[in-house]
């Protein structure tokens, strides 16, 4: 189910409205922005795919340190190259929308932070996460000693079953204690 | 969902299985065979694993990444898992079979595998169905089904069957469950599933198709109508909501703000937007229901309308004073339309009754508008609706933001939740990253406070006293200015108000300080790193006293000396400034309260106070002589002195005494310093001494008895207070009686005076009577007169 014309079909629109957390205006705006990303030849393809580099050129994602992970998580491409169809794009916006539930957001946040896709956040994932948070420049990165200490503190606080990793339930437990998560995990077009 | 992982079992079973059979040789024969079989199996598995290891070496290569190194190094973990059994596991590489097992564990798959998500949501829909349908109605089933089994949704026990189509089967079950939910539940459940849109639409299509097939013919026509009505209502509700969303007030601006500044600053602008909506609602209600009907039926003006000049916009009067803007314009009668003849007569004689809604008019037009009623109900309704909306949004936001157990796990929360995805601008992102780095470092190294320059650290302790003294100095000036603007009737009222304001200021400052010292520092001294909190409080009081003195000197210099110069040279006033007696006395009382508070912690503080008072005396004397003039208004000295002494006793001394008693009675003294080192309260020392006295000297046992039964017993306090009150009552009665006697005595003196007057007049009268009876008397009187 894709969009061939530059207009979105009405039945598709209502279906997307029911299946995602987006409103009609948001879906139409998403369609417009998605079409702008498509190249000329792709417009006539039944389910066009936008390559990851183009998606990352969107101003909302350009400076986000997690942009590549976001594309990988929402991409349904078989080649795992992070390319997005329009429906993947809607999935992305729905998870990051105003009315998405805490559970959806924490689910996708977990998948974004799981850099090696093994279903849990182990030490390596946490290290990459902290490096993304603190930035690229050398003076904001933590030293190895600090990183080691930080990760062991985090695991001590959040690893309840003491297996050395943070699984989805433990992650959701930490998230549920922070009231600001829902409002900061938002991207609006 | 989170299963506790027991690594020991896998270890024993797969890698170290050889050890267990060796121990069991002395066991019964029938077990030996079993153990032998197991050993064989273990050996085979090991061989298999070695082969697999050779093949799949690259898939386990990432184990040597720093991630593993990091948490392997943490010390506490090994011991927790039962005597270092985890350590040998970590040392070896995990085989691919183990990895397979690990990766297919439910707690790890729920995050990413579709089958797991489907099965999780299958369970949820099951629960939801059970909750919604306690007893299903028969017409929901096809005729052949037996209601008792079908309705409660028997789960086939299928845990044993593993296979490729397990996911498909679970999907079918999920679809089945979705069918049996109501439409809104189905939509909500579908939306909340973390699957892609394509998969969700597939599920929806399946659920709708099956549902439509079974339900279509069964609905009788009246509930079809109901369905249509419900669908129509839902459509209209959605379109209303989307209209509100499409207004998109300030969307672009808000996005720009949040892109640069993040969620925090955005919340302010969202709040502005909320307030705007409240006001729009209020304006619409009052405008439509009050202003428009009144504007359409303007009342006849008694005076001429004032012309519009620009000043109305600032003062609100003038042209606006006789318009719909103000209350006075609205008529108190029922407005009616289209009846010019009757309406004009109506307006000239306003009807007092407010309950009449319709008017009989000549033209027979019914619509009329009862203005007083409308005014009253409109305002009431507007407030009521605003109240409901506010309470609702308050409860909703409270529910979203309330979190129990907030103090735990701050670091993990910060790492997982602190990134604001709304921030778009590159420089803001960079700023945030730096900020997060600093915060993480701070949280990590909270115990290690970097060593500052010790002198600087000590000097920073002076900051609080300086601030308090500044407040004490500046605010009374503001109070004076306020009093000058308020223009009281009599100067005594002015003085009393000034004193009470000043007093409240000082009392609140002292209360806050006492709470800070006794309530926070004393209860938890180690949180600030204090070994001996009493000394710290004593030092604080010393600093406060000293700062107070320094600021008094400054105030004397600037407030009196320079002000005198200023007023004489620049303002050219003839008279010098007045010495503000009440303010200075209150300053003294404040200083004395500090001294009384501090005596417990700093026994030599009265010496400091003595020196301060001596210096203060000479300084103020010099200043008064040079700078001030005598007050113009007569000062009721004795009354003010009474007030000041009362103030010294009641809030000042009493407050200090209460604080000191509280400290002695309830607060735990420091363990490492002071005379009450090992005791639980300071008061205990007295108790212990009395006990000691009892043991050493049995003759003084009565003292112990007296102490325990009189001082500690609250009954004694009640009795003492009762007696005190009785004495006071007795004295007041005596004073009353004495007043009565005074008035009686006054009356008696008056009566005595009357008696005296009466007697003198009587004497005179009798004297007059006696004179004409004796003429000899007259001549003797005359000769007597000539002699004299």
UniProtKB/TrEMBL annotation, chain A:
Residue ranges of every copy of the EF-hand domain listed in the record: 101-136, 146-181
Pfam families given in the database record: EF-hand_7 (PF13499)
A GO term for molecular function: magnesium ion binding
GO terms of biological process kind: integrin-mediated signaling pathway
Keyword annotations from UniProtKB, A to Z: Calcium, Integrin, Magnesium, Metal-binding, Repeat
Tree of life domain: Eukaryota
InterPro entries per UniProt: CIBP (IPR051433), EF-hand-dom_pair (IPR011992), EF_Hand_1_Ca_BS (IPR018247), EF_hand_dom (IPR002048)
PANTHER family assigned: CALCIUM AND INTEGRIN BINDING FAMILY MEMBER 1, CALCIUM AND INTEGRIN BINDING FAMILY MEMBER 2
Protein name per the record: Calcium and integrin-binding protein 1
Taxonomic source organism: Oncorhynchus mykiss (Rainbow trout)
Automatic annotation (TrEMBL), chain B:
Membrane topology: Multi-pass membrane protein
Subcellular location: Membrane
Chief localization: membrane
Pfam families (alphabetical): TMC
Record key words, sorted: Membrane, Transmembrane, Transmembrane helix
Membrane as UniProt keyword: yes
GO molecular function ontology, one term from the record: mechanosensitive monoatomic ion channel activity
Residues in TMC domain copies: 532-638
Family according to the record: Belongs to the TMC family.
Protein name per the record: Transmembrane channel-like protein
Source organism (scientific name): Oncorhynchus mykiss (Rainbow trout)
Organism lineage: Eukaryota, Metazoa, Chordata, Craniata, Vertebrata
Gene giving rise to this polypeptide: LOC110485503
């Amino acid at each position: 189910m894709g969009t061939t014309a530059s207009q979105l079909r009405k039945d598709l629109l209502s279906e997307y409205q029911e299946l995602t957390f987006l409103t009609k205006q948001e879906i139409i705006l998403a369609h417009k922005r998605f079409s702008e990303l498509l190249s000329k030849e792709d417009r006539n393809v039944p389910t066009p795919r936008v390559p990851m580099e183009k998606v990352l050129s969107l101003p909302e994602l350009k400076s986000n340190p997690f942009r590549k992970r976001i594309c990988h998580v929402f991409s349904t491409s078989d080649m795992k190259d992070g390319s997005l169809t329009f429906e993947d794009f809607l999935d992305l916006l729905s998870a990051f929308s105003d009315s998405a539930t805490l559970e959806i957001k924490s689910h996708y946040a977990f998948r974004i932070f799981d850099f090696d896709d093994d279903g849990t956040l182990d030490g390596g994932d946490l290290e990459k996460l902290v490096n993304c948070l603190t930035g690229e420049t050398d003076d904001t990165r933590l030293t190895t000693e600090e990183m080691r200490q930080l990760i062991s503190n985090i695991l001590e606080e959040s690893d309840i079953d003491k297996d050395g990793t943070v699984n989805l339930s433990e992650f959701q437990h930490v998230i549920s204690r922070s009231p600001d998560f829902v409002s900061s995990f938002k991207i609006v077009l | 969902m989170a299963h506790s992982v027991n690594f020991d079992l896998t270890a024993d079973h797969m890698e170290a299985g050889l050890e267990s059979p060796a121990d069991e040789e002395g066991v019964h024969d029938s077990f030996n065979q079993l153990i032998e079989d197991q050993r064989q199996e273990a050996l085979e598995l090991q061989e298999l694993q070695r082969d697999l290891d050779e093949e799949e070496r690259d898939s386990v290569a990432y184990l040597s990444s720093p991630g593993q190194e990091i948490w392997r190094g943490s010390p506490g973990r090994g011991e927790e898992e039962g005597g270092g059994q985890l350590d040998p596991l970590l040392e070896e590489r995990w085989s691919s079979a183990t990895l397979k097992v690990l990766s297919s564990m439910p707690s790890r798959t729920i995050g990413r595998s579709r089958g797991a998500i489907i099965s999780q949501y299958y369970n949820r829909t099951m629960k939801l169905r059970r909750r919604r349908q306690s007893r299903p109605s028969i017409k929901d089933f096809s005729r052949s089904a037996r209601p008792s089994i079908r309705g409660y949704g028997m789960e086939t026990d299928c845990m044993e069957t593993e296979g490729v189509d397990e996911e498909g089967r679970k999907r079918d079950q999920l679809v089945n469950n979705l069918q049996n939910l109501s439409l809104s539940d189905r939509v909500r459940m579908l939306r909340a599933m973390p699957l892609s849109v394509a998969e969700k639409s597939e599920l929806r299509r399946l659920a709708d198709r099956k549902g439509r097939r079974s339900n279509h013919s069964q609905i009788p026509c009246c509930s079809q109508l109901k369905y249509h009505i419900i669908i129509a209502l839902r459509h209209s509700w959605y379109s209303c909501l989307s209209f509100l969303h499409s207004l998109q007030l300030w969307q672009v601006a808000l996005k720009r703000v949040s892109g640069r500044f993040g969620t925090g600053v955005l919340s302010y602008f969202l709040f502005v937007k909320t307030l705007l909506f409240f006001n729009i609602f209020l304006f619409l209600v009052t405008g439509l229901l009050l202003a428009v009907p009144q504007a359409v039926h303007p009342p006849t003006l008694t005076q001429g309308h004032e012309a519009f000049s620009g000043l109305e916009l600032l003062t609100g009067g003038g042209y606006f004073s006789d318009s719909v803007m103000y209350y006075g314009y609205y008529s108190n009668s029922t407005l009616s339309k289209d009846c010019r003849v009757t309406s004009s007569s109506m307006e000239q004689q306003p009807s007092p009754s407010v309950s009449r809604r319709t008017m009989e008019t000549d033209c027979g037009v019914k619509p009329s508008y009862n203005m007083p009623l409308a005014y009253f109900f409109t305002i009431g309704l507007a407030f009521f609706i605003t109240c409901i909306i506010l309470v609702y949004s308050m409860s909703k936001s409270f529910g979203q933001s309330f979190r129990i157990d907030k103090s735990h796990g701050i670091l993990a929360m910060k790492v997982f939740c602190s990134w604001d995805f709304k921030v778009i601008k590159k420089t803001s992102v960079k700023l945030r990253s730096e900020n997060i780095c600093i915060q993480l470092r701070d949280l990590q190294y909270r115990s290690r406070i970097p060593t500052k320059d010790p002198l600087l650290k000590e000097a920073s302790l002076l900051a609080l006293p300086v601030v308090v003294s500044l407040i004490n100095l500046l605010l009374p000036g503001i109070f004076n200015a306020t009093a000058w603007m308020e223009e009281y009737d009599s100067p005594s009222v002015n003085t009393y108000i000034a004193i009470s304001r000043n007093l409240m200021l000082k009392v609140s400052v002292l209360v806050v300080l006492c709470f800070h010292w006794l309530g926070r520092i004393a209860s938890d001294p180690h949180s600030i790193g204090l070994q001996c909190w009493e000394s710290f409080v004593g030092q604080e009081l010393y600093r406060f006293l000293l700062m107070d003195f320094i600021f008094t000197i400054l105030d004397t210099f600037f407030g009196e000396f320079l002000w005198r110069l200023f007023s004489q040279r620049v303002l050219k006033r003839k008279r010098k400034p007045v010495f503000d007696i009440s303010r200075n006395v209150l300053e003294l009382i404040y200083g004395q309260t500090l001294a009384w508070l501090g005596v417990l912690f700093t026994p030599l503080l009265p010496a400091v106070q003595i020196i301060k008072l001596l210096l203060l005396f000479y300084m103020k004397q010099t200043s008064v002589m040079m700078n001030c003039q005598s007050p113009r208004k007569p000062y009721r000295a004795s009354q003010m002195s009474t007030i000041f002494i009362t103030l010294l006793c009641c809030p000042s001394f009493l407050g200090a005494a209460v604080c000191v008693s509280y400290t002695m009675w309830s607060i735990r003294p420091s363990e490492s310093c002071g005379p009450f080192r090992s005791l639980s309260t300071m008061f205990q020392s007295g108790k212990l001494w009395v006990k000691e006295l009892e043991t050493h000297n049995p003759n003084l046992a009565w003292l112990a008895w007296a102490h325990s039964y009189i001082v500690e017993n609250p009954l004694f306090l009640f009795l003492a207070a009762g007696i005190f009150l009785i004495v006071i009552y007795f004295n007041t009665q005596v004073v009353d009686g004495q007043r009565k006697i005074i008035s009686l005595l006054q009356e008696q003196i008056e009566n005595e005076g009357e008696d005296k007057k009466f007697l003198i007049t009587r004497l005179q009268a009798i004297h007059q009577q006696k004179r004409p009876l004796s003429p000899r008397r007259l001549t003797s009187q005359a000769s007597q007169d000539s002699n004299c």
